[in-house]
Amino acid sequence: MKTYLLPSLKLTAVLIILCSVLYPLLIAGIAKTAPGQGKGVTLSVNGKVVGYENIGQKFTKDEYFWSRPSAVDYNAAGSGGSNKGPSAPDFIAAVQARTDTFVKHNPGINKADIPGEMITASGSGLDPDISPKGAYIQIARVAKARNVSEELVRKLIDAHIEKPLLGIFGPEKVNVLKLNIALNTLK
Questions:
Q1: CB burial readout 71-105, b (16+ within 10 A) else e
Q2: Which of 36, 38, 81, 91 is most buried, judged by most C-beta within 10 A?
Q3: Domain ranges in the chain?
Q4: Taking the model in full, what pTM does it have?
């Protein structure tokens, strides 16, 4: 018994120190070298923090671009998806309600033309980005609500499209918060 117990206790102590002390300190040290020093990258307007660059936010006014829906109401403390399958009645009802709301606020849009990301929540519920198509489909609503030309809004979207990393990793995307901040500078 002593033959097995003592080595097991030693191994447990070493792994506790390694996994519970040294590894977290290493990761915290690496985070300090990242943008935002591990606290997230904030976006400010006139010295006031308006949000985090990598955490989605809820926009419901017609004069702003809308983010992807969130199953956790954009709560970063409890990120996660709904975990409902495509045939679940609750999921179908939620998607239908989002579709109806989107069409109501974006008249003239066919339901079939709405990108899936605009009516379904992501796995984290905190996506800060939408596809360029998700932004373009909202141009008419935003331009009308702000009383500006659709061409001006399209140019603003084009200027905020982020290309894939190294040109190959990931899709093109538009950060909704950055785009909405830029919208507020339009005259």
A1: bbebeeeebeebeeeeeeeebeebbeebbeebbee
A2: 91
A3: 1-39, 41-183
A4: 0.78
